[in-house]
């Protein structure tokens, strides 16, 4: 479980101007994150625009990412969807080489009951060759994985090892920490609430902002996990406005703008997403200057 303490980054998928995957940009980004001190990378989560990639593109991105990472940090694959049978098939057929876990978001659109969510993850658990990280993100899925369901899954299936919690509900966080198995990990799925979640016992963060600022994010998360909350608070507060701006016109458009300004990769996104407007881009650039990072 120590593999998923600290800072993980839900990595973006860089695209060329014509919409094709930019593998040079992806390589640059992976090396930038590893040099920035992150503990693990999540490939093709929501932030990776996985919903707009074909099956063949996903396979190639996963393989390229594993080859580029080359076991320098831990690696997680995002595999989810609202067709349980299709997700089970993808999980069962996934090439696990170089990967340490699978992150799977709760089904979107269908709005299943808690029993439906439980049975969905049960089916995934029974087909998986790797440990499973649950992902509760009601703002995107339209339904919530309750604390009771999370802990039921954690107790019933030993290969379900963690949950990425992006519900924003401290009632849910508190109940999970109280009722989970001792070795089950609560991981923040929202940059702005990571510090208070760690104070409850969370194991760290899967970050969006960390794409652009891996050192700043991983440094303050490390301080918090060490119990140095006064020092961690400074880093946390420094990033609040930057993180807010990243989501002003949708994710990952905002963080891709920052990555372009930093010279890491381009800012192209795939429809239905569009690039941020000039006003937001200028505000992101100004905030990067305040944080004292070097722009390209």
Question: Main traits of this protein?
Answer:
TIM Barrel; globular; 13 helices; 46% helix; lyase; alpha/beta; schiff base; 8 strands; Aldolase_TIM; diaminopimelate biosynthesis; cytoplasm
What does this structure look like?
With 296 residues, this protein is α/β, with parallel strands linked by helices. It has a single domain, classed as TIM Barrel, CATH 3.20.20. It is built from 13 helices and 8 strands. The chain has an 8-stranded parallel β-sheet. It is globular and about 50 Å long. The relative contact order is 0.14. Pathway: Amino-acid biosynthesis; L-lysine biosynthesis via DAP pathway; (S)-tetrahydrodipicolinate from L-aspartate: step 3/4. It catalyses: L-aspartate 4-semialdehyde + pyruvate = (2S,4S)-4-hydroxy-2,3,4,5-tetrahydrodipicolinate + H2O + H(+).
- What is the name of the CATH superfamily? Aldolase class I
The biggest beta sheet is recorded as: 8 strands, parallel
- Helix-strand topology string: EHEHEHEHEHHEHEHEHHHHH
Helicity, as a percent range: 40-55%
């Amino acid at each position: 479980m120590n593999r998923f303490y600290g800072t993980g980054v839900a990595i973006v998928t860089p695209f060329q101007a014509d919409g094709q995957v930019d593998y040079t940009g992806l390589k640059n980004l992976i090396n930038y994150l590893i040099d920035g001190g992150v503990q693990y990378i999540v490939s093709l989560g929501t932030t990776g625009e996985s919903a707009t990639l074909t099956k063949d593109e996903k396979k190639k991105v996963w393989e390229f990412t594993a080859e580029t990472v080359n076991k320098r940090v831990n690696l997680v694959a995002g595999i989810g969807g609202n067709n349980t049978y299709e997700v089970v098939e993808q999980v069962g057929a996934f090439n696990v080489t170089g990967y340490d876990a699978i992150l799977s978001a709760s089904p979107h659109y269908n709005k299943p009951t808690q029993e439906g969510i439980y049975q969905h993850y049960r089916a995934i658990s029974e087909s998986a060759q790797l440990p499973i990280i649950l992902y509760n993100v009601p703002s995107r899925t339209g339904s919530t994985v309750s604390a009771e369901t999370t802990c039921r899954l954690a107790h019933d299936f030993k290969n379900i090892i963690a949950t990425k919690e992006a519900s924003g509900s401290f009632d849910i966080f508190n109940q999970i920490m109280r009722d989970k198995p001792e070795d089950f990990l609560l991981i923040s799925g929202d940059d702005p609430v990571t510090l208070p979640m760690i104070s409850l016992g969370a194991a760290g963060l899967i970050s969006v902002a960390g794409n652009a600022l891996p050192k700043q994010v991983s440094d303050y998360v490390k301080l918090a996990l060490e119990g140095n909350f006064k020092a961690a608070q400074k880093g946390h507060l420094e990033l609040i406005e930057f993180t807010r701006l990243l989501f002003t016109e949708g994710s990952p458009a905002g963080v891709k703008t920052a990555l372009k300004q930093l010279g890491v990769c381009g800012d192209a996104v795939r429809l239905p997403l569009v690039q941020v407007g000039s006003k937001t881009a200028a505000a992101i650039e100004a905030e990067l200057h305040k944080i004292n990072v070097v722009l390209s």
